[in-house]
């Protein structure tokens, strides 16, 4: 289909869709006039029930913990898919282009900027760990902190050293992190089955709301998910960066 | 005014679809898809908003404070994770398509046309 015909068809279909969407949305309650029941209930009793003050983490890793198990394995499976799609094809080889991989520079970044990027690596790790372990008290948790943790080795990449990024985050380490995180969360669920009789049911002491060690399984689940997310993102990013920096040859 | 967030969501959805339909670069197609997906965040967060409500973090507000619905916020978090995974997979496919056909233009994907 020509581009023109495609756009004409879209103008018709898209216009119709927009009209239907607007009609549908006008049937929703007004913005801010909330009529739900679940939200109100969980807002009222969440803290008393589970001793975590961040209700989003509380829902994620306790009330809806089973959904999170599925979500986590979606991430795991899709990263496996990325690794599979970007596998070494016939005729391809990995070979650092000397100047590029050992020392490349983005838009001729100055030495000061590149040193700063390298210096940020430990700071990002510290923030990531903080966000992961405080998920049950303040905004954060495994998913958010995991992505921040995964961003840390990218500092080395931005500093112009891809091979040192791979030294900070070697394939084996991040793959194990990904796998241990995913397995750990599932094992946490199984341990609930053993100690409390129900899969993913909390059996860990709840502690005092607002304290670091509170919320029972929230923190444990957060750490496992943080490990899995940071591992998964680093595996995916390394795959893409390998394609750009190392992989040569192959059929066109 | 109270309809505005939903109108923005509808607009994002349609404009993202336009981006997909009119795209001549696979990376642009993928980014357009994330625009479509982001409209769902607005709908979910809009549905759960309580006027005058605070965020559902009871670390520094009392437990009886009026707060927004945390359930839809958790759904948005799930949504974002799914978006990241879908984007990653599609980008990986785009990399291989570029290797195979030497172009990111959907029109040059010969295998699809034959």
Question: Topology, please?
Answer:
The complex is a heterodimer of chains A (252) and B (114).
Chain A: H1 3-26, H2 38-50, H3 55-63, H4 65-85, E1 92-94, H5 98-102, H6 111-133, H7 142-158, H8 162-168, H9 171-195, H10 217-245, E2 247-249
Antiparallel strand pairs in A: 1-2
Helix pairs in contact in A: 3-4, 3-10, 4-9, 4-10, 6-7, 7-8, 7-10, 9-10
Chain B: H1 4-22, H2 26-48, H3 70-101, H4 110-113
Helix pairs in contact in B: 1-2, 2-3
Description:
The complex is a heterodimer of chains A (252) and B (114). By secondary structure, chain A is mostly helical. Chain A has one domain (53-249). Helices cover 69% and strands 2% of the residues of chain A. Chain A has a two-stranded antiparallel sheet with strand order 1-2. In chain A, helix 7 runs parallel beside helix 10. The longest helix of chain A has 29 residues, at 217-245. Chain A is globular and about 60 Å long. The mean pLDDT of chain A is 88. Chain B has 114 residues and is an all-alpha fold. Helices cover 68% and strands 0% of the residues of chain B. Chain B has helices spanning 4-22, 26-48, 70-101, 110-113. The longest helix of chain B is centred in the C-terminal third of the chain and has 32 residues, at 70-101. The relative contact order of chain B is 0.14. Chains A and B meet through helix 1, helix 2, helix 3, helix 4 and helix 10 of A and helix 1, helix 2 and helix 3 of B.
- Assign a percent range to the helix content of chain A: 55-70%
In DSSP terms (H or I, runs of 4 or more residues), the helix count of chain A works out at: 10
C-alpha end-to-end distance of chain B: 50 Å
Low-confidence stretches of chain B: none
Spatial order of strands in the largest sheet of chain A: 1-2
The helix content of chain B is 55-70%
- CATH architecture field of chain B: Orthogonal Bundle
Q: What radius of gyration of chain B results from the CA coordinates?
A: 19 Å
Mean pLDDT of chain A: 88
Number of helical segments with 4 or more residues of chain B: 4
- Gross morphology of chain B: elongated
Class computed from helices, strands and strand pairing of chain A: mainly alpha
User: Beta fraction of the residues of chain A?
Assistant: under 5%
